[in-house]
Specification:
The protein is an alpha/beta fold and about 800 residues long. It folds into 4 domains: about 15-240, no CATH class; about 255-415, 3-Layer(aba) Sandwich (Rossmann fold); about 420-520, 2-Layer Sandwich (Phosphorylase Kinase, domain 1), CATH 3.30.200.20; about 530-820, no CATH class. About 45% of the residues lie in helices and about 10% in strands. It contains 34 helices and 22 strands. Strands 3-2-1-4-5-6 form a 6-stranded parallel beta sheet. It has a 5-stranded antiparallel beta sheet with strand order 7-8-9-11-10, with helices on one face. Helix 18 (about 420-430) runs antiparallel to helix 19 (about 430-445), helix 27 (about 645-655) packs across helix 33 and helix 29 (about 700-710) crosses helix 33. It is elongated and about 115 Å long.
Length: about 800
């Protein structure tokens, strides 16, 4: 099931405050009841008995005074997620502290704090603990460094100070709880074993008091079949409040259901305690019980394991609950030992690949650690992490994504299911991008892949590719993404093959609802993009230079033959449907241009976007006339006609409008070197025909011409920026740009080959047949202008320094200027 979202409840949908009230009241009763520790008789009633608080307000104030929220959050931040466990940890902590003040502990050995006779002996010690003056703390943490924080000013949370001790350092979750026996041994000077561990009778003892407080007399009696030890408790469960407004929660869950997600939960609550508030809020029907795992599953499974002599703890951060939420058969009692062994292996080494790709949403480190161990995409919500320490530790658990609260989840799920997101992530977080992509293949192509490996390359400006393994075989995949624009690719590989192109034909193609993916057989030939780059950066060129140029000349001749053989007249309606127009006119007239540049400012070279010095609004930049000079002093733009960038853009919107009758050919459309293999060191082998179809040959040559010759700075911005010298000066309505960027030897050779073996012969062929458009030069060079201007966002500081932004603008003006100044 690849559309499953598993929520933690408390701190995500339901509030934990009522549980925290029960935890604090449990600790309060242990401290002051004459049945337990009896630390301060002044808190008792006139009859000398412990009097339970009765209202929600009294519960909250008494609880927080005894067990401050900061201490609770410090425990949760360390993956102690179950409220029974948080309560138990503090009961252990306080009791060990009290025992450290007993002059002669031998009278109380062996420690049995769950035994009423032992408790009577403990009370005879006459231990009294008073609050520190002006402090909300119940105990005087004499053995902990709680005096100052990191900066020597603020007091440290006692829980934080405790867990900074060497005995606890580096431990989280249930493993941390099991360190309390060792902590007690060190502090008390006696070997303590099985007293303060997670499955000590003391844990069950504290749990029972907690349940009395949380359920109240009536529900407790119904659940356990006997009256509570301490009567008169109203039940904190009746004080439950939703975490967010119910309207917001319902709207969010409804939206997720409309997105066809199945909703489940994995919670530290028992079934009764989980269902009660969900039913009370009217939310129960949103959750599929077949994909919900309460703490009952953990208790039953652990009991079975203990019968097999296995003491494994299955509560979070163990992945067990999340795996049960995915598939209830996982906890089948007959198969449980083998299943749990597998879960342990998964948690420790992740050698088991999850059968499903699902989402876990939680507010604590235990949710994130357990969800990741189960193979899920993890989403942290900040609603349960209320302190800076809790938020810091939550982020240290490395959730895949973080949101403020669940209302942001529907939009996030749209984002992580987007190929645009994966394309962006491949450079910054390849492992996460691969997991998202594996989920994408499962959701949209029904492929349960064994592995996915992305191959991020500089050429992948608006695409990504890589390999996946399925049934022991390796396949190559590629997709093109079009952020903020129209995207209607058609992979016309058969059309190209029939026209005479040497092309890798896809095995499978998906194109639906803005999604597209092409799967190919694996090709082992080198990609020409990589060969050309190797020549550029190598001091010894070998024969690669000559091989590439010879292959380019050969391919130019083949292209001219294909163009002549497929040349026909197309109507304006037919021409407008050609996918190639998405590379030029649709980007210019659509959302991409607006999103890249509208309302933006352009900093001068060497200045960031936050600089207070001179920046030029892009709309103002459109009205300047440009002069562009190379390091040799030659003027490449501005010598004759000097159109503004704004004039060039407006002219391009007219000339490149696809609704025009024209002569068309069958072409690849996007045959830059990143989409071409060099087969046998001599033949071009094309792939990824995302924009293939029938279109003007004048447009067909544009992308490979510009990108193979001029666009090195786009693909290798850091390397180009290191040696780039570029200055911008402004004189009235004029901009003067001087720069030292020039083509490398192999790029110059490619330029000359494209110019004299393709561009000029194509012009002559079209002219000879009487089909050369009057505006042919404008068509070529204004389309060429779109390449530096609209392939990537020139104002994206994360991608390009300002000098390269100006180099891109300069090239756009230079290309556009050629449309008016060629003879």
């Amino acid at each position: 099931m690849n559309n499953l979202v598993v929520f933690d409840l408390d701190g995500v949908i339901t509030s934990e405050d009522a549980y925290w009230d029960a935890a604090g009241l449990t600790l309060h009763e242990l401290c002051y009841s004459p049945r337990y520790w009896n630390l301060d008789k002044s808190t008792l009633g006139a009859d000398g008995q412990y009097q339970p608080v009765m209202t929600a307000e009294e519960s909250r104030s008494t609880s927080r005074a005894t067990f401050p929220e900061g201490e609770i959050l410090a425990l949760k931040a360390r993956a102690i997620n179950s409220n029974w466990d948080t309560c138990y940890v503090m009961a252990c902590f306080h009791l060990i502290d009290l025992l450290s003040g007993v002059p002669d502990l031998t009278d109380l050995l062996p420690l049995q704090p769950w035994d009423f006779e032992w408790l009577a002996s403990f009370r005879k010690q006459g231990i009294q603990k008073k609050r520190l003056p002006g402090s909300k703390q119940l105990f005087n943490w004499s053995h902990l460094d709680v005096e100052s924080g990191d900066h020597g000013t603020d007091p440290v949370n006692p829980v934080t100070a405790l867990f900074n001790l060497p005995v606890f350092k580096g431990y989280v979750g249930l493993e941390l709880i099991n360190r309390f026996d060792l902590y007690a041994s060190e502090l008390l000077g006696y070997a303590i074993e099985g007293v303060f561990s997670r499955y000590s009778p003391y844990w069950t003892f504290c749990q029972d008091i907690f349940q009395e407080w949380y359920l109240g007399d009536e529900l407790y009696s119904q659940t356990y079949g006997h009256l509570p030890e301490q009567r008169g408790k109203p039940g904190c469960i009746h004080f439950e409040q939703p975490l967010l407004s119910l309207d917001k929660v319902r709207f969010t869950l409804e939206k997720l259901r409309r997105q066809e997600y199945v909703l489940g939960f994995a919670t530290g609550r028992t079934y009764q305690e989980a269902i009660y508030p969900l039913a009370m809020y009217g939310l129960r029907h949103y959750f599929d019980e077949e994909h919900s795992a309460t703490y009952d599953y953990v208790e039953r499974a652990e009991a079975v394991l203990r019968n097999y002599g296995d003491a494994t703890l299955l509560g979070k951060p163990h992945p067990f609950q999340f795996l049960v939420a995915v598939d209830h058969d996982y906890q089948n009692s007959k198969a449980l030992p083998a299943c749990v062994s597998g879960a342990v292996q998964l948690a420790e080494s992740r050698v088991m690949a999850p059968a499903e790709h699902f989402i876990v949403v939680g507010d604590s480190t235990s949710d994130i650690l357990g969800g990741r161990a189960a193979g899920a995409i993890t989403v942290a919500v900040l609603t349960g992490a209320r302190t800076s320490e809790a938020r810091r530790l939550l982020q240290e658990s490395r959730p895949d994504f973080t949101i403020k609260d669940i209302t942001e989840l529907p939009d996030l799920l749209v984002e992580i299911d987007s190929l645009v997101t994966i394309q962006r992530l491949q450079f910054s977080d390849k492992e996460k991008a691969e997991r998202l992509l594996q989920r994408w293949f499962a959701r949209h192509m029904k492929l349960r892949l064994e592995s996915v490996t992305l191959m991020p390359k500089a050429v992948s400006l608006n695409s990504f590719n890589g390999f996946y393994h399925l049934n022991g075989k390796e396949y190559f995949f590629k997709t093109h993404v079009e952020e903020q624009g129209t995207l209607e690719e058609y992979y016309h590989a058969d059309l190209l093959h029939q026209a005479g192109y040497n092309i890798v034909r896809p095995l499978q193609t998906l194109h639906e609802g803005g999604r597209q993916m092409v799967v190919y057989p694996v090709v082992r030939w080198p990609v020409i993009f990589d060969l050309v780059r190797a020549v550029e950066v190598s001091s010894t060129e070998g024969d690669t230079f000559e091989s590439v140029i010879a292959a380019e000349k050969q391919e130019c001749a083949r292209l001219l033959t294909i163009y002549e053989q497929t040349l026909v007249r197309s109507s304006g309606e037919e021409n407008a449907r050609a996918p190639i127009h998405q590379l030029f006119w649709h980007r210019l007239a659509g959302e991409r241009f607006k999103n890249f540049y509208q309302g933006k400012v352009v900093p001068l070279p060497g200045q960031g976007r936050n600089s207070s010095t001179h920046m030029i609004p892009f709309e103002e930049l459109l009205h300047y006339r440009w002069t562009i000079c190379t390091k040799h002093g030659s003027v490449v733009a501005g010598e004759w006609k000097r159109p503004t960038l704004g004039e060039l853009i407006e002219r391009a919107r007219v000339i490149l409008n696809p609704v025009r009758e024209t002569t068309t050919v069958v072409g690849h459309g996007d045959a830059h070197f990143g989409n071409v293999f060099l087969e046998d060191k001599k033949d071009y082998l094309y792939f990824d025909p995302a924009f293939a179809g029938r279109h003007s040959p004048l447009l067909d040559i544009v992308k490979p011409f510009f990108h193979n010759v001029f666009a090195t700075w786009m693909y290798f911005p850091r390397e180009v920026a290191q040696n780039l010298q570029l200055s911008v000066s402004m004189r009235g309505s004029d901009i003067i740009v001087e720069h030292n960027f020039e083509l490398t030897a192999i790029r110059q050779a490619i330029f000359e080959t494209k110019l004299y073996d393709l561009y000029v012969p194509l012009r002559n062929i079209l002219r000879a047949q009487g089909v050369l458009p009057a505006d042919w030069e404008e068509m070529v060079w204004l389309a060429m202008m779109c390449c530096p201007l609209l392939t990537i966002n020139l104002l994206d500081e994360k991608r390009l320094p300002s000098a390269l932004c100006w180099l891109g603008l300069t090239q756009a003006v230079e290309m556009g200027n050629r449309s008016m100044n060629e003879g």
